[in-house]
Amino acid sequence: MNDRRALPAPPPVAGRVLDAGLDLLDRQILDPDGVPVSTVDDLELTTPDDPAHLDPEHPPVISALLTGPILLTRVFGGRLPDSRFIRIPWKVVTDPGVVLSVGVHADSLDASWTERWMRDHVIARIPGGRHDPE
Amino acid sequence: MILSDLLGRPVLDDAGRRLGQVVDARFVLDGPPDGSLAAARLHGLVVSPHAHSSFDGYERTGVDAPALIARFLRWRARGSFLVLWGDLESIGDQVRLREGATLYSPRLSESEV
User: Fold this and answer.
1) For residues B42 and A61, is the Cβ–Cβ distance under 8 A?
2) What are the tens digits of pLDDT across the range B84-100?
3) pLDDT given at position A4
4) Which of A38, A130, B50, B70 sits most deeply, having the most CB atoms within 10 A of its CB?
5) B35-54 tens-digit pLDDT
């Protein structure tokens, strides 16, 4: 039953196929200018109406990419509370390629707040930190 | 629902026999338009009877190098299969399949790799 060599190929599908672990998770997210936003730490899916009796006609879809401080849970196990994840809606994703491109600028996304905070409160106070190198 | 809540869940057939655990989820961009792309529909789950995770998807692609690592990872993922969303009965602490669920090869076609 579980001999993979004997298993049939799945029926063909019309759209592009993405395996979460291979094509989405841990991929870098870049904004339209190529500025790194974050990485994909997890995916938020729509929840089935009744998980005990799934509807074959209404599969979950990806509603958002999630990013957050997951290093400790990856090392020590456990699960980050939902509130600690930052959501990047799927609708802003423009190209799930080697990196995930999004159609909005990094500064408009909550996911890059640490970068902005570092820029405004630390880098800007360093002499020469407010302009490009000459 | 968060994807990592689904990964690692045991998968049982309709009789309650354990078939393995969820190691990955396959999505297809063929839903109604959602922003710039089509909605990413959950097409199915990749299940492995032995491994608790999949590393680099060696069992799903034609990659066979480095040879020793590829052999080891293919052996580790032996017996993996894809089960489509329509064959899932319920999702909870365990994922249970419907009676007569079809197990498909998890291998990606050349155009999908």
Assistant:
1) yes
2) 999 999 999 999 999 99
3) 46
4) A38
5) 889 999 999 999 999 988 88
Residues 28-87 of A with CB under 8 A from B: 42-48, 51-54, 56, 59-62, 66, 79, 82, 85
Q: Would you state the structure tokens that stand for residue A108, as one six-digit string?
A: 């408009």
Query: What pLDDT is recorded for position A2?
Result: 44
Task: Using alpha carbons, select from B51, B109, B49 the residue that is nearest to residue B83.
Answer: B49
- The domains found in chain B, sorted by start residue, are 3-106 (2.30.30.240)
Helix (H), strand (E) at residue A96: strand A93-96
- Contact criterion met (CB < 8 Å) for A47 and B1: yes
Residue B17: partners with Cβ closer than 8 Å, 6 or more residues away: none
CA-nearest of A52, A62, A47 to A15 is A62
Q: Which residue has the higher pLDDT, B11 or B110?
A: B11
Helix (H) or strand (E) holding A127: none
Could you tell me the pTM of the whole model?
0.89
The interface residues of chain A toward chain B in range 88-127, judged by CB-CB distance below 8 A, are 89-96, 103
Q: Which domains does chain A have, with CATH numbers?
A: 21-47+57-125 (2.30.30.240)
Q: Are strands A42-45 and B103-104 parallel, antiparallel or unpaired?
A: unpaired
Let me know if A110 is exposed, middle or buried by CB neighbors in 10 A (0-12, 13-18, 19+). exposed
Q: What is the ipTM of this complex?
A: 0.91
pLDDT confidence of residue A107:
87
